[in-house]
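Data deposition worksheet. Section B asks for the primary sequence of the deposited chain exactly as it was used as input, without tags or linkers unless they were present during the calculation. Section C holds the resulting structure in token form. Section D is free text for depositor observations; keep each observation to a single sentence. Incomplete worksheets are returned to the depositor.
Section A, Depositor: J.P.
Section B:
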Amino acid sequence: MVKMKNISLLGLLCALSPLLGSAEGLLAIDNPAKNGQQRQAFATVEAFEGNDQVAMRQYGGDWQGTYSPRTGTNIGLLAARAEAGVQWAGYRVGALYRAEALVQANRDTSDLVQQYSTRSGYATGRTYALDYQIKGFEAAGVHVSKSFQRQLGNQWQLDGGLGLSYLRGKRVKLETGAGQVVTLNTKDFNANASRDSSSSDLNVTDFAQFNAPSGRPAAPSGDGYAVDAGVVLRHQASGASFELAVADLAGRLNWKDLPNNVTNYSNANKYYDANGYVQFNPMATRTSSYQNLSQTLEPKLLLAANYPIGSFELQGAASYTQGYWLPQAGLSYRINPQWGVKADFDFRFSTVGLALEHSWFYLDLRMNGSNADTANAYGLSAGISIPL
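Section C:
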């Protein structure tokens, strides 16, 4: 996650981007119902990142280039998951890594950040109602899951699965900001805003970032768990299948000694830089503390359907988290029993995914557009399985 080095209000807002695919969908949701019966070693990695406003490479920087925000809430999304382990008789045990983040900002906040970052000047006489939120974490641990099967009549088979993860927290950022900015001219505005930020990346020995309470500097730590569940319903005659999976059906990370800053911004602590742009000094109104915090992991849902037509298969899916649906549609082609190819499109970020699949491995790349420098979303999904 981005370290907030700039002490101005807008500098803080410009650091909206967090840590910077798919086991399933764009949210790297693992469905334990798909655990196989074969004895094998496996490794998978899934990663996706995207945002609504600018090129991904500009999101944590100066927001240059094309700016195309949504009218309502704009989001920045990260979903990353990697696992390596062994499988047998429907069981899987593996070492797990996860990183997830969601940034939500209203249009006013997004516009203000873009105007500040590009030094294009503020809209004179405009009132910006600031409202943004950041939730993100990084963790590693151990994942254990088990699938089971049940025949439903002569034509249907139901596969189910459960998974449990122990997680050791590595990094976290939880932040909210709200308030109002009224511009006076293209370089100056009055502000009445507040920000509440808990972050493991804060340098607690740097007074510019943290007013350390009396006593020793504390090192944050976190641990917790996550429960996953899923089902796959298969129609044996047609080959059609329907899938439901929920990641973090229950989940929590408990953090200890997490640095927290509560900061207020008002006209009382504003000043101007050498170019005449307004700045704010948060040290004048910042309250710092260490907190023990319980972070509930947000559930993530996947719905999917597949229908084969000869060597082709039509595929539709939709992922969901925190009020946002991420639908996809795709088509795959089975070249022979071992090889296949796939293409799909996601409707939120307009990425195209192209995949090569083999009975032992797969590779899936996705991006919106053909230029990584200007793309505002891209992802990678890869995996390998080795019979034992």
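Section D:
The radius of gyration is 23 Å.
The CA atoms of residues 83 and 96 lie 5 Å apart.
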